[in-house]
Amino acid sequence: MKTSIIFFLSGIGILMGLYSAYVYSQRPSAQPPAFKPAANPYESGIYANGIIESSQSLGSNINMYPEVSGPITKVFVTEGDKVRKNDPLLSIDDSVQRAIADQQRAQAASALALLDELKAQPRQETLDVAAAQVENAKAALKNAQDHLGKFEAAFRSSPQSITRDDYDNAANTANMAATNLLVAQRQYDLTKAGAWSYDIRNQEMQYQALLKASAASDALLSKYTLRAPCDGIVMSIQTAAGSYVSSQGAYNSYTQGFNPLVIMGTTQDSLDVRCYVDEILVSRLPAPDHMTAKMFIRGTERTVPLTFERMQPYVSPKIELADQRQERVDVRVLPVIFRFAKPSNLNLFPGELVDIYIGQK
Length: 361
Prior knowledge:
361 residues, CATH 2.40.50.100, alpha+beta, Elongation Factor Tu (Ef-tu), domain 3, six-stranded antiparallel β-sheet, six-stranded antiparallel β-barrel, 4 domains, 25% strand, 5 helices
């Protein structure tokens, strides 16, 4: 009885194994593609990956980094806004730098006031005091000379009427009065001459140094407001009010890397597409005058004709598409930039990946 059950179960297992082998050996029918793959429209066209970017006469998008560090206090624009050159984009806390700039501006103003004071010398009130001192010295000299004259007259009439010490004291007093008059006169001349030219020159140099320090401080203060370098459109803002930023940019907690604070592009009536031609295909590229190209939009069957714009004559690792900065990349590519008019009935944005075929006219 047990043997019959064992044979029965074995037979069922064999049948199930055969059925499973039959089912899994069947090849499922291929699913239709979500969209028609890009077909080469040229007889011997070259395929390349591409990235849409804003139109630039040189380079690509404008990646903006601050030159100073600090927390963001305000963001003045939103993504997609059109801005004019020098429009403020965002501001960084400048409280410390503003105080430093005010202090250096005040120091420069103080140095200028002292320079003006030196140039304005002599002050009339000071000159009047020096003149009064001269007159006082003259009066003292006259008084001393009159006193000495009386002693001399008395000595001539009666030598015993005065002592030798009294006569010598009167003579010394007259000499001292004459010296005091000479000092007062020279002090008056010095006061009347005004400030020494070397003192004025030294103060001028100090003022210029403080003025330049103040200008440098003001220039640094202006860098706490990030402004648009040209007319364009704000494509991406990588920070918010309260975030701390540095010259490396803004830290992204998702990618754990630093990104530019703002990415700007030109107005998007026309766009560029930067395609990367594999180095083994570079030799097959047509001459720029005979180059034609078409862009295929992924997820659609739409194509857009391209116009050759320029070529970046430097073969570089194909690292831009993946943004894998630590990855060892063996494939090297030549960037070729084309321009196209943005279709009104098709959504295209900078940063979008597209397929490119390059042919010959």
